[in-house]
Amino acid sequence: MERLRAACPEAAPTAVLAGDPCYDRILAALPQRERFRRALGVGPDRRLVVVGSTWAPRSLFGGDGDDRDDLLPWLLSRLAAELPADEYRTTAVLHPNIWYGHGPGQVRAWLENARRAGLDAVPPLEGWRQALIAADCVLGDHSSVTYYAASIGIPVVLGAFPEQDLDPGSPVAALGRTAPRLLRHGSLRAQIDRAVEAHEPGRYKALAQQTSSAPGESAVLLRRLFYSLLDLPEPRSHAALLEPLPLPPFHPVHATAPVRVLVRRIGADPPQVDLVRYAVGGDEPDPPQESEAPVESAHTMVDEETREPGRLSVADVVVRRAAADDPRLGPPAAWAAEALASHPYCGLVAFVDGPDRCYVRTRDGELLRLTAAPDPAGRPDLCDPAAYAAALYAWTASGRAPADAGPVLRVRTGAAVHRVTIEPSAARPA
To answer: Do the Cβ atoms of 366 and 392 come closer than 8 Å?
Structure first.
């Protein structure tokens, strides 16, 4: 109200304190954070990175204003190249005016390479609040999305922030004086990890207090205002309520870009494979190898739905994702036999038919079922089952028999260790 009186005093007499319905819906849904994360396929040992941009020339999507190159394409390519696929997930939240100003087809075309590498682009109107609540880090700009993230305690890193476009007395300008900035030089992953690990929960407490002067009260205030304008009494038998944020449908990562698998270690007692996987987009080079993490071997996985069919001819592992009873593909055993015949140079094929399981078949004709153990609460493991197939391929490529990996193969991705049961499939190989 003070800023309004200073900027436009003639409007002050008609101004009304009404709260923020959007912020109130976010606050009410905070207890659903873990469910939102699981809906996005993010387990406890995986970090969700949300890339948010407003609609402006100096926004994250529009570029930083000081460089001729757009910032967002660089950022998306670096995220895919630097962030291991099984340890991070990336989601883009773009202002609706970006979608409708340029057209959904154009935006999807701009994001296509990143989407094939696993980026999830949230629809322009719904779902972004849930992604924000689920996030571990937000890479943003001077948008309200970035500010909302800070206000609920999410670590933020500013990829673009045009101070010259903002009122110095605004809460958003205060965020720019507080949050860390993204640096193009150096490791992007290190900057994200630093922001998450060094974050203090109360860092943006003062900013949160400026988000709304009446948190949780917007429904009451707005309904009171509407009925007063209509000169009608408010209904006393019904509370003023906002629509709760719905639980999104389960939406795991489906990367169709080739995946480079780096095997860090293979152990025999107990059987364990430590690996890291990176999506490889276009002509991107192999991901950098940290000196403290040597690589024993490497191989390539390619999804049958890739846009680069030439990659299938040199793939070590070929992957298909579908329901086991999909009549277009036949049962997994039939697909596996056809895939091995169609791709004679691959050593293993994998049919992923659930969030925590897959069928695999090796060149010697053995059809196996891989199933990850559930978490302590009995919920399915949310690591991509293709990682288990990659681990078994690394095991067999090292000269070991699949039977020696069972009945339980430990698969390590980052800090997480997945216990994968290996058993012969009841389906008969073709």
So the answer is: no
CA-to-CA separations, 337 to 75, 309, 322, in angstroms, rounded: 40, 19, 16
Q: Considering the chain, what percentage of its residues have pLDDT values greater than 90? A: 77
Q: What is the mean pLDDT of the chain?
A: 91
Full-model pTM: 0.93
Distance of alpha carbon 170 from alpha carbon 424, whole angstroms: 63
Token pair for residue 21? 């319905």
- Predicted confidence (pLDDT) per residue in 90-136, tens digit: 999 999 999 999 999 999 998 998 999 999 999 988 999 999 999 99
Q: Six-digit token pair at 218? A: 């917007």
Q: Is the pLDDT of residue 186 over 90?
A: no
Cβ count within 10 A of residue 228: 12
Closest CA to 325 of 353, 355, 291: 353
Q: Using 50, 70 and 90 to split pLDDT, how confident is the model at 291?
A: very low
Angle at 373 between CA 368 and CA 375, to 5 degrees: 160
Strands 408-413 and 416-424: antiparallel
* pLDDT at site 77: 83
End-to-end alpha-carbon separation of the chain, Å?
74
3-state helix, strand, coil in the chain (%, to 5): 35, 20, 45
Tell me the DSSP string of 251-273: ------S-EEEEEEEEEETTEEE
Contact indicator for 50, 131 with CB cutoff of 8 Å: yes
How distant, in Å, are the alpha carbons of 4, 393, 406, 410 from that of 269? 69, 18, 11, 10
Residue with tokens 């020696």: 404
Predicted confidence (pLDDT) per residue in 226-265, tens digit: 999 999 999 989 999 999 999 999 999 888 999 999 999 9
- Rounded to whole angstroms, how far apart are CA atoms 131 and 36? 7
Look-up of token digits 């959904």: 104
The answer to whether the CB of 72 falls within 8 A of the CB of 60 is: yes
